[in-house]
Amino acid sequence: MYDFANSGxxxxxxxxxxxxxxxxAVAGNAPWATFAWTAALSVSYAAVLAGAPLIGAWADAHAAxxxxxxxxxxxxxxxxxxxxxxxxxFVSLAIVFIILSNFCFGVGENLIAAFLPELAxxxxxxxxxxxxxSFGYLGxxxxxxxxxxxxxxxxxxxxxxxxxxxAAMLITAGLFAIAATPTFVWLRERAKPQRQLxxxxxxxxxxxRHAGDFRDLRRFLLCLLFYQAGIQAVIALAAIYADQAxxxxxxxxxxxxxxxxxxxxxxxxxxGYAQDRLGHVRSITLTLIGxxxxxxxxxxxxxxxxxxxxxxxxxxxMGSSQAAGRAVVxxxxxxxxxxxxxxxxxxxxxxxxxxxxxxxxxxxxxLPGNHRLAILAVGxxxxxxLWLLRGIDIERGRRRALxx
Length: 404
What we know:
There is one protein chain. The chain contains 16 helices and no strands. The protein is mainly α. The protein has one domain (about 1-185, about 210-400): Up-down Bundle (Growth Hormone, Chain: A). It is globular and about 65 Å long.
């Protein structure tokens, strides 16, 4: 239910609605608008990157994951609702509440993930995680669907998007709060307080040192850093590209993202089973090739139908590549250090969330309005990921993890 709840935030605010609204309405299509959006996201991800070890360590020391999750959820809900105040020209206000809401979201995402080992044993973690990811995409569909109904109804009554889109932030905040409620009613904190707390950043340095002893895992984490940069750019800028490069309306963009979320849900659920048959490296290779095809098709698209094809390829690849990457880390990490190396997995994803979208923003600022070249620029990260993937011997890495 928490995956269902928080996916509405990312889908509506980050991916489908508010990003395009910020560039087109709040910032008035200024040459720096896309860069300002990506810079705000990067600041929030950098704050999560810096604060996560401290917050996680405090939660471990006091067995306080649930109370901190409640605080971060309340913060995200409140700041999302306050985005409704960001009308045309209120750039600073929008940036402040985007940074705060996305920071709270990132903290909550880390805390809810930390409950997984308490809810499933090692044989079921992948399935439970995959089910949650798939259900989360459905949450995004529900949130977008409600916002679409409101925006289209407002249009029939002559209400412009500049009024209806801010109200959609209230819908998103309300759904987040309601759907997250079962988590706080029924989820129990099973961890015990650990009063002897190792300094958080010292622990991160120690984990990085251990990663250096695992050659194939280390290379895969670097590979993941690059290809996730491309994925995070697509997630953060899909609606902006649809609006600025393809001329989609808000309603058209929402319908597109609803369909893509459904495609991603199917990809995340089904690809986990296919990965066991195809092998880890081959599976991720196929998804990265799919991403490259998507980028080329999106950059070349001048008609709506070709962009629809590209977007649905992105949906299939998004669900499958994210699920597959997490599975590879689990396969290459020693059983006694799963927490450590999944922590590095989280650091890689958050790091990618900073420089992936920022690359896109810098290109659109340096070359005003050139969103097609910007998507090609972030597409190069998938090529780097493919090149790094070639040097990974997955079975050698598995033997190292098992100590053989």
